[in-house]
């Protein structure tokens, strides 16, 4: 049996390989030439533009045999492959089992395990390894020191910030991605097509125009925001790439609600526009951008000689999961000839939930959309997406042809356009495979049901909490986020800051005891405990347990005079 036979149980893969090997042999075997010519001239007409194929092979053979080594061969070997493949294979199988066990038993661990001092020391202060050690020992280091302290967002009660919880399919896809080790920035290989396919699926999902739209997979919504706002900046100032902002001496301004994520601020800073280029538009009682205020601000800025260049809409804000009226924003943007960008990091995926899809009405009119696969689709970190109404704008903003990066009509360097011409990265991982895998494994219906379940769980939790007269649930609970604040009667005389601290410490208690991972938010200038449910492992029982723990820690903290709780 060949190596391949041993590894794979997939006959189709074997067949493909055999076929490929067969046609490769054609190239090196003279006797096949005639048959090859006859059989394949019609099927592969382009091969006939390669007159010297056999010449190349014979030259190669000559070079091989004429090289004489006078040096120590061991110092010339570049190989990092295992010397003992079967041992390496056994170790790899073991680690796959460790991974699956880790996910299968996520519920049995604490939601967070603080890193012990000795582990912290080992992780931070290891000497730069001069000589390697067996693969088994490196794996053991992971199992002992890394895996147990890995953050906890695989746990069913991890509800902090906005985190995805990962899947078994994601593990398999990441393993295959690493095996192929493809650079999806350029050339002709399966990873490039997979990325195009995923983007096409997203185009369909968000109903962007089929003739012109396209996109790019990036590390996340923050990176997507940089790329989209760079396109918007170029759209407003076509000379910015050559001349830079200083020479053009214009002041561009962007508009976004006060609830907007900080990634927009970072993008504006990075693009040389400065934080002052962002106008924070007030919100209504549902935390949606006030459209009239937006119109007024645009008008005022124009009169001041500033150039409004971008409106940022939110499809799911971090604090409360609010959706701006995207349809109205699209209209204002069109009327004023301003770029319309949407941050839909997690919220845009309500597109998969028929009962909530109306929330993104108007999204399909955006010029650009940024969102994450690693949040509500649970694709392993990191994968986000840029979707543009006009893919040509992405080329116009980033394409920088160089003679060492020329795509060809055929050969490995074909399959134009290359992704490296559409963004910042030249070398790019195949982030698309894990997205593709997730969507194929579960299908959009099941993924949508999981999202709907999280939103229903948020309502369930809000109901549980509102049974206590000293717990204030922040309203509206519009999506998958519940903010609440304990105001115990015992602290009736305390000032609001003391109650803020009380709630903050309660969050620390819950985290340190490994019960659950909430985060906090500031709403109406008061600290709230924030539960954001983007977790396919959470069940209703998890929320019962959580509320009981909240009450327990609250009482313990009151009884101990609001001190830290140690066990
Ligand atoms: C998470 C998030 C971002 C940032 O996305 P990253 O993938 O972490 O870069 C931006 N906006 C919103 C609303 C988010 O939830």
TrEMBL record:
InterPro entries: Aromatic_deC, PyrdxlP-dep_de-COase, PyrdxlP-dep_Trfase, PyrdxlP-dep_Trfase_major, PyrdxlP-dep_Trfase_small, Pyridoxal-P_BS. Pfam families: Pyridoxal_deC. SUPFAM superfamilies: PLP-dependent transferases. Its cofactor is pyridoxal 5'-phosphate. Signal peptide: none annotated. The modification N6-(pyridoxal phosphate)lysine is found at residue 375. GO terms for biological process: amino acid metabolic process; carboxylic acid metabolic process. GO terms for molecular function: carboxy-lyase activity; pyridoxal phosphate binding. Keywords: Decarboxylase, Lyase, Pyridoxal phosphate. Belongs to the group II decarboxylase family. This is Uncharacterized protein. It comes from Adineta steineri.
């Amino acid at each position: 049996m060949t190596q391949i036979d041993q590894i794979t149980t997939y006959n189709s893969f074997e067949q493909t390989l055999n076929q490929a090997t067969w046609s490769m042999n054609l190239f090196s075997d003279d006797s096949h030439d005639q048959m090859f010519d006859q059989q394949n001239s019609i099927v592969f007409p382009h091969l006939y533009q390669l007159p010297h194929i056999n010449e190349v092979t014979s030259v190669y053979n000559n070079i091989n045999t004429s090289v004489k080594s006078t040096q120590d061969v061991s110092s010339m070997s570049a190989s990092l492959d295992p010397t003992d493949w079967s041992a390496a294979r056994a170790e790899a199988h073991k680690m796959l089992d460790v991974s699956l066990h880790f996910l299968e038993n996520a519920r049995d661990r604490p939601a967070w395990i603080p890193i012990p001092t000795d582990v912290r020391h080992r992780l931070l202060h290891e000497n730069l390894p001069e000589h390697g050690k067996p693969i088994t020992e490196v794996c053991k280091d992971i199992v002992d020191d890394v895996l147990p302290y890995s953050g906890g967002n695989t746990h069913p009660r991890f509800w902090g910030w906005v985190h995805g919880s990962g899947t078994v399919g994601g593990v398999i896809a990441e393993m295959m991605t690493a095996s192929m080790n493809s650079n999806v920035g350029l050339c002709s290989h399966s990873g490039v097509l997979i990325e195009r396919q995923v983007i096409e699926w997203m185009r369909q999902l968000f109903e962007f125009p089929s003739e012109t739209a396209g996109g790019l997979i990036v590390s996340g919504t923050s990176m997507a925001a940089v790329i989209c706002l760079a396109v918007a900046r170029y759209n407003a100032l076509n000379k910015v790439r050559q001349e830079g902002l200083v020479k053009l001496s214009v002041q561009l301004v962007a508009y976004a609600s006060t609830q907007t994520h900080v990634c927009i601020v970072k993008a504006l800073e990075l693009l040389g526009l400065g934080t002052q280029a962002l106008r924070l538009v007030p919100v209504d009682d549902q935390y949606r951008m006030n459209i009239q205020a937006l119109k007024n601000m645009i008008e005022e800025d124009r009169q001041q000689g500033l150039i409004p260049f971008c409106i940022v809409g939110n499809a799911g804000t971090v604090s409360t999961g609010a959706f701006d009226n995207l349809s109205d924003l699209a209209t204002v943007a069109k009327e004023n000839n301003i770029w319309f960008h949407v941050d839909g990091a997690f919220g845009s995926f309500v597109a998969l939930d028929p009962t909530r899809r109306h929330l993104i009405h108007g999204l399909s009119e955006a010029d650009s959309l940024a969102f994450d696969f690693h949040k509500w689709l649970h694709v392993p970190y990191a994968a986000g997406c840029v979707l543009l109404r006009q893919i040509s704008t992405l080329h116009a903003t980033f394409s920088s042809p160089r003679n060492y990066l020329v795509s060809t009509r055929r050969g490995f360097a074909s399959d134009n356009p290359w992704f490296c011409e559409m963004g910042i990265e030249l070398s790019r991982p195949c982030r698309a495979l894990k997205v593709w895998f997730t969507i194929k494994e579960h299908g959009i219906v099941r993924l949508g049901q999981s999202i709907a379940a999280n939103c229903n769980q948020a309502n369930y939790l809000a109901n549980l909490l509102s049974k206590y007269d000293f717990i204030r649930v922040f309203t509206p609970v519009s999506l998958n986020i519940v903010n609440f604040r304990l105001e115990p009667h015992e602290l009736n005389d305390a000032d609001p800051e003391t109650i803020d601290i009380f709630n903050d410490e309660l969050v620390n208690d819950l985290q340190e005891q490994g019960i659950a991972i909430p985060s906090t938010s500031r709403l109406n200038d008061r600290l709230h405990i924030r539960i954001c449910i983007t977790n396919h492992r959470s069940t209703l029982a998890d929320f019962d347990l959580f509320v009981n723990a909240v009450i327990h820690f609250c009482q313990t903290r009151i009884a101990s005079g609001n001190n830290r709780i140690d066990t």
